[in-house]
Design a protein that fits this description.
The structure is a single chain. By secondary structure, the protein is α+β, with helices and mostly antiparallel strands. It is built from 10 helices and 9 strands. Strand 4 and strand 5 form a beta hairpin. Helix 2 packs antiparallel against helix 3.
Length: about 280
C-alpha cells in the first residue's frame, strides 16, 4: 500500500480490496495513513509491525492502525492466501472513534485468533462482497459495516493501551515517508541520510538493521510494488510504468520486475486481463 498508488484501487468510497495467494511474494516494510485489516484465508504468515512479530494462521484477523510500519511474509512453502481491506478512517461514522484513530490516540489490538470474534469476520466478508458488487448503495453499505466493526471493537475493549513508539519505529516511519515522496527521483542513501541528519555510514547500518536489506535493494522493491498497481490499472504502458516509478530504462525495470515478482511486466499485465 503505497500512498497515492494505493488509491488506484478505490471505487466509490476510499476503500480498496486486495488478495494475496502466493507463498513467495513478501509484502515489504511499509506504512500508510489508511487503516488495514487482514483475514488469513489459507496457511500461515509472520506479520511484523513496529519491530514486533506475530504468527498468524488461517482464520486469524490482523488489524494495522494508520502509520504503523509493517510487513507480511508467508511462514513456509505451504499454500497461503489472505484478503485485505485498506480504507480511510472517515468511513467510520462515529467521528470520535475516527479522529482518535487517525490521531493515534486509539490503537486497535493487532491479532485476533480464529474463532474469537466471529462477528468481525462476518462484517469483513460483507465488506469484501459489497466492494465486489459495487452496487448503487456501496458507500452506505461499506460505511455501515465498517462502523459496526469499530463499534464492536470498542465495546469489547479490543484496544492496545500499552502502545508506544520506539526509536526504531520512528526511524522506519521517517524513512518510508521520504521514500514515498521521492521514489520517482534519482535518490541515493546519501540523499536521505543528509535529509534526516544522519551520517551516511550510520544511516546505512541502521537501515540494514531495520529493513534487513540494503537501501538500493529496498528502493527497487518499493518501485516495483508501485509499478504493479499501475499495471493492474490497465491504462498504462510498461514503458510509462517504468518511468513513472523511477526507472531510467525499461530494460532495467524488466530485470528488477522479474527478480522480485518472478515474471516479466508484460506477463504480469496479461495476467491481470485474465482475472
Amino acid at each position: 500500500m503505497l500512498d497515492d498508488y494505493f488509491r488506484i484501487r478505490y471505487k466509490k468510497v476510499p476503500l480498496a480490496v486486495s488478495f494475496q495467494d502466493s507463498n513467495t511474494y513478501i509484502t515489504e516494510l511499509h506504512n500508510h495513513s489508511e487503516f488495514e485489516i487482514l483475514l488469513i484465508t489459507c496457511g500461515s504468515a509472520c506479520v511484523t509491525i513496529n519491530n514486533s512479530s506475530y504468527f498468524v494462521k488461517s482464520g486469524d484477523m490482523f488489524f494495522i492502525n494508520p502509520f504503523e510500519v509493517h510487513s507480511i511474509k508467508p511462514y513456509d512453502a505451504a499454500p497461503y492466501s489472505h484478503s485485505c481491506i485498506c480504507f480511510d478512517c472517515s468511513l467510520i461514522s462515529e467521528e470520535r472513534i475516527s479522529e482518535d484513530i487517525k490521531n493515534e490516540l486509539i490503537h486497535i489490538i493487532h491479532h485476533i485468533i480464529n474463532g474469537d470474534q466471529p462477528l468481525l469476520v462476518k462484517l469483513f466478508n460483507h465488506i469484501i462482497e459489497c466492494h465486489r458488487q459495487n452496487g448503487d448503495y456501496l458507500a452506505a453499505e461499506i460505511t455501515a459495516y465498517i462502523s459496526l466493526m469499530f463499534i464492536h471493537l470498542m465495546k469489547c475493549s479490543l484496544t492496545d493501551r500499552k502502545y508506544h513508539k520506539t526509536k526504531n519505529s520512528v526511524f522506519c516511519a521517517k524513512v518510508l515517508q521520504y521514500i514515498s515522496k521521492h521514489f520517482k527521483d534519482d535518490i541515493t542513501s546519501a540523499d536521505i541520510a543528509s535529509t534526516l541528519s544522519y551520517n551516511q555510514s550510520y544511516f546505512c547500518r541502521l537501515f540494514r538493521k531495520n529493513f534487513n536489506r540494503q537501501f538500493s535493494d529496498y528502493l527497487n522493491m518499493y518501485r516495483i510494488a508501485a509499478s504493479r498497481m499501475l499495471l493492474e490499472n490497465g491504462e498504462i504502458t510498461i514503458a510509462e510504468a517504468a518511468s513513472e516509478c523511477g526507472f531510467n530504462t525499461q530494460s532495467y525495470f524488466t530485470q528488477c520486475f522479474k527478480k522480485y515478482i518472478g515474471i516479466s511486466p508484460s506477463e504480469y499485465k496479461k495476467s491481470q486481463y485474465s482475472l
